[in-house]
Amino acid sequence: MSPLITALCTVLSARQVIHDELRRLAYGTDASFYRLTPEVIALVENEDEVRAVLATAHAHQRPVTIRAAGTSLSGQAVTDGVLVLIGEGFATCEIATDAASVHLGPGMIGGEVNFRLAPLGRKIGPDPASINACKIGGIAANNASGMCCGTAQNSYRTLLGLRVVLADGSVLDTLDAASVAAFKASHAALLSALQQMGEHTRLDTALAERIRHKYQIKNTTGYSLNALVDFEDPIDILSHLMIGSEGTLGFISRISLQTVAEDPFKASALVFFPTIASACEAVIRLKPQPVAAVELLDRPALRSVEAKPGLPPVLKTLGPDAAALLIEVRAQTASALQVKMDAVLAALQGIATVEAPAFSTDSATCEMYWKVRKGTFPSVGAMRKAGTTVIIEDVAFPVASLAAATLDLQALFQKHAYTEAIIFGHALEGNLHFVFTQDFGDAAEVQRYARFMDDVCELVVKKYDGSLKAEHGTGRNMAPFVELEWGKQATDLMRRIKALFDPSGLLNPGVILNDDAEAHLKNLKPMPAAEAIVDRCIECGFCEPLCPSHRLTLSPRQRIVSWRELSRREAAHEDPGQVATDFAYFGLDTCAGCGLCSTGCPVGIDTGELTRLLRGRGLGTVSQQIGKLSGEHFGKVATLSRTAISAGHMASKVVGGKVLNKLSGGAWKKSMPQAGRAPQTRTGTGDPVVYFPTCGARIFGGNTPDEAGLADVVIELLIRAGFDPRLPEGYDKLCCGLMLASKGMAEEADAMADALTSAILAVADNGAGGLYPVVMDASSCSARMQKLLAARVPVLDFHEFAADALLPRLAHRLHKKPGPIALHINCSARRTGTQDKLRQLVSACAEQVVEPAGVTCCGFAGDRGFVVPELNVHALRKIHAELPANCCEGVSTNRTCEIGLTEETGRPYHSVAYLLEECSREEDLPTC
Q1: Confidence category of residue 134, pLDDT binned at 50, 70, 90
Q2: Angle ∠(170,173,175) on CA atoms, nearest 5
Q3: Bridge partners of 775?
Q4: Tens digit of pLDDT for each residue in 804-856?
Q5: C-alpha span between 147 and 291 (Å, rounded)
Q6: Distances (CA, A) of 33 to 163, 245, 394, 567, 777
Q7: Which residue, among 752, 648, 627, 766, has the nearest Cα to 695 in the 3D structure?
Q8: What is residue 554's three-state secondary structure?
Q9: Annotation: CATH topology of 90-261
Q10: Does CATH number 3.30.70.2190 belong to domain 265-377?
């Protein structure tokens, strides 16, 4: 190990110092098109650890970059020095009693903060498109804004105070009088310099006016010089300079923000215009109106999404010069909303439109409108050629120049042959994003990009005096152009600020200020083709908060980054080295394959598909033969499994559940359910319905010896509700094949699914050319068969059928159960979009439902919870703090998920069928 790594290991635990090649590569990647591989990664959980890392890096004169989520687009979150990842110790959220303010750790995800504020009718001001993935630290450090934020509600404008760790390890809490007093004593020279800098700037009328002018539109180019003219107190100047400083001046360890109202009533209008000019004329008229958002889309942006289902047909008929505005208004009441809609429509009168403007308050319609806007960036990313990078740039113009500037940008696209480029943006602020694809693997292509960027800078700065970076931060991408935009006097101010805070120049060097005129053309990220199913990945990181293995091993983004590197090495005939060895565990063994990543991915990539593909390639002949035999003789496999569970319980009685758990490496669960039993054969006299008891329900029985198995409970409910359950012939020998599919044995899994399909179709045939509905009792199995049988017979997961068919028939006898019931919505229910059906069902049965925040996939993933139990433990690490002490049971819709949840929480989890059965009995219910 290097002296630096050795030194870090003396101040942090071994787990917190990461220096293997695989994770340095994978963890060191951000959403930008730059690639620097850190020398070492330090995972920190508190301020003391941050200070220790800073001191160690300073002693070894190594640069330090402190990163939150890594969704930044301009290269500000990569380094070849020490990369500091902030851990969950910084994920703190304290909401004021009146919810008018919130005190946040930098590790909190922005969307999670809004989730907590929503019941109080509030939210944070910044609303970047990445809010469900990016973290508060990054939002503040980049002064991120968004579609509705504008310039009035960003971090700078809503800042109440912050706590910051400076380069020398000192800590300042601007909301703590004692901390401020101590800092004034210890850092008098720094504060005096800031005070004098502010005074001189304000006295320089031309400079002060220049700074104020630059912030009339969105601007994140360079440091927040407006702090020098907006404030006189050096503490205020310091705190506001930290906003947008991109980790180059210090580390924000806590921030306090004013919250803003989250209006409950909303309406949207998607208005089409024959030309950009007419659309921008409308923007100017809308600027003084009570609008929450006005999004501009040019014709290529609209064309990129016009084929998507559910979008307005008029999209395909628009002329080549057309444009659209997506307008949203919000209010506290329906009547106030109507007033705002009327005002906007009145303002648009007399402007040429393709169709008469009209607002909709229907949530589905509004969601469809926003799909137009949100689908543009991913559409370009999805259609790009393998091996190329999708780039999203971010500029701002005076609103009065928006039409001309948009046309000039379009002309630059044609000049430099970026024919696929699209433009969209936050029109009220003159903020335009343009998206195009770029090949950085070809020197000539890099030079084309350089010429294009030179022309863009000339256009934005020289012709329109706009912002080269409006909301994405300066980063490495625009650092060489800061002086072009601001001029030498203002840029020299920035250089003085950097030198005051970071005299050694070790905090994120090369970001915001960079004297290398070609820095934006160096360290470009390679994007080699790897696998067709993931080549569209833009490495944005939106998938990471949903992934159960993120921060245990790898996230979906990091798996793709790793496999791209291994594919590159293979193509170049390079030795894959230890990266390939480590990838087996970090990349494959600990991937749940749950597919939740696809629900957050802008281009819908399911990295679980890559995992299954690679697992399949890695299987030997023996494994394939075992898989084939398992499929052909599944009845015997199920019997052997039940026998093993019974034997395990016998052993547990002798040595104890904890000892057996330890001896088995976590495979045996202390709360392992009983072995399953064949369900009692019963028939009803009502409407026929096909019920297939999944293998999980057959292999595993109840949580206790006297508890009924899931299949018996489902059959009882179907009969109780007036249905006649019919089981497929030979059901105990059948399986959907998911267990083999997850291991990459696609052919063997499909053979099992085909056998089940034949049995289901046979029993579902009603003899009159129709089919009875089919119900299954495990969400993951139901999702697989729904996909395979979609065109032949409807397959419903139990909770879907129960919500739609059982509740109406059992409503007259339902008794709500007291005491909070924990609800776990597993990954399959989320992916199929049936979670609201599940919530409806549980709410009908329980007086209080607890849905733990921050818990997505439980990580049990079929047999993963037995094979790599640490995945299940890690995935459920946040559930303990979310469950109240008086919550003594939970429900879900997958048997293995319930095993893992029971093990981790110490509370019995069952299928939601148990809850419905109990609440629909005629006798009184017992208390919890």
Answers
A1: very high
A2: 165
A3: 691, 796
A4: 999 999 999 999 999 899 999 999 999 999 999 999 999 999 999 999 988 99
A5: 11
A6: 31, 20, 14, 19, 45
A7: 752
A8: coil
A9: 3.30.465
A10: yes
Spatial separation of the C-alpha atoms in residues 125 and 259, rounded to whole Å: 6
pLDDT at 151 over 70: yes
What's the count of helices (H) and strands (E) in the chain, helices before strands?
Answer: 41, 24
Write out the two tokens for 571.
């193509």
Q: How far apart, in whole angstroms, are the C-alpha atoms of residue 547 and residue 527?
A: 23
What are the C-alpha distances in Å from 394 to residues 75, 147, 218, 253, 473? 14, 13, 10, 28, 9
Element (H, E) at 40: strand 40-44
The radius of gyration of the chain from alpha carbons, rounded to an integer in Å, stands at 29
Maximum Cα interatomic distance, the chain, rounded to a whole number of Å: 91
Q: Which two tokens stand for residue 432?
A: 């335009």
What distance in Å separates the CA atoms of residue 711 and residue 692, rounded to the nearest whole number?
9
Single-letter residue type at 476: R
Residue 445's CB is within 10 A of a number of other CB atoms, namely 13
Model pTM? 0.94
**437, 389 Cβ separation under 8 angstroms:** yes
Angle between helices 746-764 and 621-632 (to 10 degrees): 10
593 φ/ψ sector (left φ>0, alpha ψ -120 to 50, else beta): left
Which DSSP state fits 119?
A: G
Burial of residue 203 (number of CB atoms within 10 Å: 0-12, 13-18, 19+): exposed
Q: Name residue, tokens 């547990």.
A: 652
90-261 and 265-377, same CATH topology? no
Q: Which residues pair with 135 in a beta bridge?
A: 109
Q: What is the rounded average pLDDT of the residues 528-555?
A: 95
Distance CA 412, CA 408 (A): 6
Average confidence (pLDDT) over 36-61: 98
Write out the two tokens for 723: 């249905």
**Which pLDDT does position 928 carry in this prediction?**
45
Query: Are 561 and 539 contacting, i.e. CB atoms less than 8 angstroms apart?
Result: yes
Task: Provide the 10 A C-beta neighbour count for residue 70.
Answer: 27
Domain 810-919 belongs to what topology?
Answer: Rossmann fold (3.40.50)
**What are all long-range contacts of 151-155, with beta carbons under 8 Å and residues at least 24 apart?**
151/215, 151/216, 151/217, 151/218, 151/429, 152/125, 153/125, 153/126, 153/260, 154/125, 154/126, 155/125, 155/126, 155/243, 155/244, 155/255, 155/257
* Cα-Cα-Cα-Cα dihedral sign, residues 230, 234, 236, 242: positive
649 vs 672: CA distance, rounded Å: 8
Measure the CA–CA gap between 913 and 121, rounded to whole angstroms: 34
Residues 777 and 731 sit within 8 Å (Cβ to Cβ):
no
CA distances from 592 to 546, 551, 744 (A): 11, 14, 13
Task: Please report the sign of the dihedral spanned by the C-alpha atoms of residue 615, residue 616, residue 619, residue 624.
Answer: positive
What tokens appear for 626 in the block? 């075992």
Q: Where along the chain do its domains lie?
A: 90-261, 265-377, 635-805, 810-919
Q: What are phi and psi of 3, to 5 degrees?
A: -55, -35
Position of tokens 């997505």?
856
Output phi, psi for 555, to 5 deg.
Answer: -95, 170
Q: Tokens 């502010």: give the residue.
A: 198
CB 437 within 8 A of CB 382: no
Q: Position 461: which residue type?
A: V
**From CA 291, how far away is CA 150, in angstroms rounded?**
11
The letter for the amino acid at 367 is E
CB 674 within 8 A of CB 702: yes
